[in-house]
Amino acid sequence: MDVWLSQRLETLRQHPGPIILEGDPEWGAAYLIAALAERPLVWLELNARDAKDPVVQGNKLAEAVARAVGSPLFGYALPYSYGLSVLQQHLELLGPLTFALSGAEYGVGLARSLLGLHRSGSRVILHFSHLPPGFHPPAGSLRLGPEQLALTHEEAAALGAGGMSRDRLETLLTTSGRAYERFLLLLDAERALPGPRTRPSPRGPRPLLGEEPATTEEQAQALFNALARQRRWIEALELASVRLPHLVPQALEPAAQTMWARGTLDLLHQLLRRLPPDPRVLRWRLAAALEQEQEAELLPQVEATLRQEEAPELRALYALALYYRGDLEASLHQARRAAEAAATPLTLHHWGRLRGVLDPAQALHTLKEALRLAELQQDHYHTILCTLSLAQTFNALGRYEEAADWAEWGLNLYQHEGLGHGGLRLHLLLEWTASRTLLGQTAGLGERLKQENPSGSASSRLGALFRSTLADFYLSEGQPEQAERIYAELAQITHRREDYAALANLWVRVLLECGREEEALQVARRALRLTEGLPPFFRRRAQLAYGMALSLRDPTQGVEALQAVLPALREPLLAPRLAQAGLYLARAQLALGQTAAAKATVESIRSFVTPGGLGIWPVPGKPSARP
Q1: Does residue 315 contact residue 306 with C-beta atoms inside 8 Å?
Q2: Which of 288, 408, 472, 502 is the residue whose CA sits 20 to 30 A from 434?
Q3: Averaged pLDDT, 258-264
């Protein structure tokens, strides 16, 4: 250990309070943090992409704790506040630990919260490139900036010992600005040492690409091999994309899978933009783009590739993109073709998912095949994704208990496997919530939903699903006014006619519960007009909304409209909406004195009706003439 490092380490070790390091990385903060090895080091590093995203910061905290203690302590895809609460409760058992945060300016809230762990023999070190105006170091902290970290003449001489003249050493010290790392790089160049030099980081030494003397291809190859042996595939892919393009295929799949499982989709998307658009790269680019709703600009390139090559997994993702664009027939054709060309967890899942749109019973078989294959291949992401699609399909079939079981199983697997894909976790939670609501088992759901904040890590599609699920919960709890506000807000931001039809169904239901029958009829009529020309599958929810609204105003017309839509809800089956249509139809039939017909209608949907779960019964304790 050199003199500069040993002297400053001694200062850090002797100080009883938190430590604040300031300055750009070349002043040596990472070297000091890495050298504090006398106790487990929980070290995480933030960058500009992580700012204002507590879930990504929580992922990095979970990863750092797992590295330090040898096994996961808490799961991924949760805000950092959750992980810190677990650490607060167990610090005496785990510690003493050293907590270090690099890039702290990108997570000031996390930095402040970490300071609460400076107790019970544990220490906290925060490294800021620059101290933000709103951050004030706590009393008793030690603050070391460039002035305190600057190399002295004696320290530089000790580093440069071995044949270098004093004048040349002074020149290097002046050129480096007395910054530790910059001086070492200049020293390496002066001595013509082979590069690249590395900087410590939470995940191991990081090559200073672009800062070190130019490396040969042989040196770059050696570095790539070292990164591959350590399974540091993200860094290996970054290196290959810049220096060794022929090695991109070797690193692409494991690097992309790692980033996908961690939920770092922005990083994946940006990194893949550098690479040639061959089918394997496009497969991951399209997957990330679909999650971020940025697929439109990529589709022409995808279509051109698929005209030349089969590329089954790329084709399966393309099928999903076509479905989002409302082209149901083409999406089913492409999904079937992809699954027939190659049976992989991805192709079978997407075929099963899209097949479930028109034939949910047959989709179960395909989804279970996909699940089994994913389990055999230890593909944790697609294993959990299949549980989500199974839950969705069982809900559509009216098998709500099975849906709840699959969604809960997926959530447990997600936690056990330590995934960081926040969108997948939230989608599982929402499907589980929907199943529980349909079953009338809503105890504890309200608090669980209130803990979620999908705005920072979810697509607009998933964000809208979160809000509509919350509204469904409010409705099931007898709070229709709160639900109506959510549906009205969603109506303002919905930009696809297919989505508006489904929303209108929900909105009409809650307007009727609030006694606003004229508004409900206006919403339903608007949905019918807007969905003209869409395939019947996409129009059936608008027709249901219209029948529901009519049934209270004019039972005769309501019976006619609801009887017309029932076949479309039976084939393909959408059990919750079929039950809803049947109950409104039965009510209208009773209003017309058609008792036998009403009994027959209820009997035909009885297996899909659950007590209190559909949001279609009268609110408990409140008189209501509505079904």
Answers
A1: yes
A2: 288
A3: 78
- For tokens 């991924």, what's the residue? 76
Integer Cα distance of 286 and 303 in angstroms = 11
Burial 399-408 (b: 16+ CB within 10 A, else e): bbebbbbbbb
Are 252 and 284 in contact by the 8 Å Cβ rule? The answer is yes
- For the stretch 489-520, pLDDT in tens is 999 989 889 999 999 999 999 999 999 999 99
- Strand segments, DSSP code E, in 18-63 are 19-22, 41-45
Q: Where are the beta strands (DSSP E) in 195-305?
A: 198-199, 206-207
Question: Does residue 311 sit in helix, strand or coil?
Answer: coil
Residues 6+ apart with CB under 8 A from 549: 508, 512, 517, 520, 521, 523, 524, 558
The helix (run of H) or strand (run of E) holding residue 201 is none
Element (H, E) at 370: helix 360-376
pTM strictly above 0.85: no
Q: DSSP code of 209?
A: T
> Measured between alpha carbons, how far is residue 455 from residues 274, 462, 570 in Å?
28, 9, 35
Q: Which residues contact 194 (CB under 8 A, 6 or more apart)?
A: 215, 219
The contacts found for 529-533 with CB under 8 angstroms, 24 or more apart, are: 530/497, 530/500, 530/501, 531/497, 531/498, 531/500, 531/501
CB neighbours (10 Å) of residue 119?
Answer: 14
